[in-house]
UniProtKB/TrEMBL annotation:
InterPro entries: ABATE, ABATE_dom_sf, Znf_CGNR. Residues 118-160 form the Zinc finger CGNR domain. It comes from the Bacteria. It holds the Pfam family ABATE. This is Conserved protein containing a Zn-ribbon-like motif, possibly RNA-binding.
Amino acid sequence: MGGMDLLLDLVNSRIVYPDGPRDELGSDGDAREWLRSRGAAGTRAEIADARAVRPVLAAVIRGEAAIDALAPWVDVMQRRARLTGDGLAWEDDVPAGRRVGVRAIEEWAALQGPEGSRIRPCADADCQHFLVDHSRANARKWHSMELCGNRAKARRHYARSKEQDSSGVSRRVR
């Protein structure tokens, strides 16, 4: 499993919409394909692991659970050294039933820093998506400026206009 996409994709793989939930890991077949498209084998153990770690990571990222909740995955993380013709190579030695969770937690850990976490929930209270902030200032708020950012700006504008209306101040209409 390569890249740094597993964590964000995983925590965004279940969203509840007004017409019901969309769960990309809902059926075993969907989960298998989802995992395979992200470099995993899609075994039963990986499917179970992905389903188990997803709500724990989401709760930790939202601040609803302490990072100790990640211990079942962290406690099995090991690296072993192997001699090669080029010197020493390090390999992960993780039980098959924890590989997806371990990979997601490694990605989560790489996004933690002195300026705060680079992965966070979208600031729109009606949105359930998470985002990874790659900006220099680490100040991104919305998973999508076009959707959530514009909605937030429209709400603020509406609130200001209602405030002006109730204060009796006439507004200039264009």
